[in-house]
Model the fold of this input.
Amino acid sequence: MRKLQKLSVINKILAGQALIISLVIAGFFMLGNDLSSKSALYGGLAALIPNWYFARKINKHKGQEAKKVVRSFYAGESGKLILTAMLFALIFQDPKIDVVAVLTTYIAALTVFWFALLIRKY
Done:
């Protein structure tokens, strides 16, 4: 528990996303559908990889002048959006994909941001 307290907010969010993604994949796996499990993994990666990229981009300029931080924020967000679009384009190249599982996991991973805001508020 002590290690979790030392993590930055960004790393806590990424860890929370990884946890939610794992739970959703496990849920699809327990339903006994390998295609849905694989699709859920793809959806989770489509959420986690761009967010990890964004976090790395932001942390690179942490503590520097505001202009560099803002520039890295916009570059990170642009890269994140492009990376997300590319990952979805790759995912949907596979004709045997469960779209519901992909989107369910992707949306579940994004909800971590909402809960992080609610928790931080209190």
The chain has one domain: 9-121.
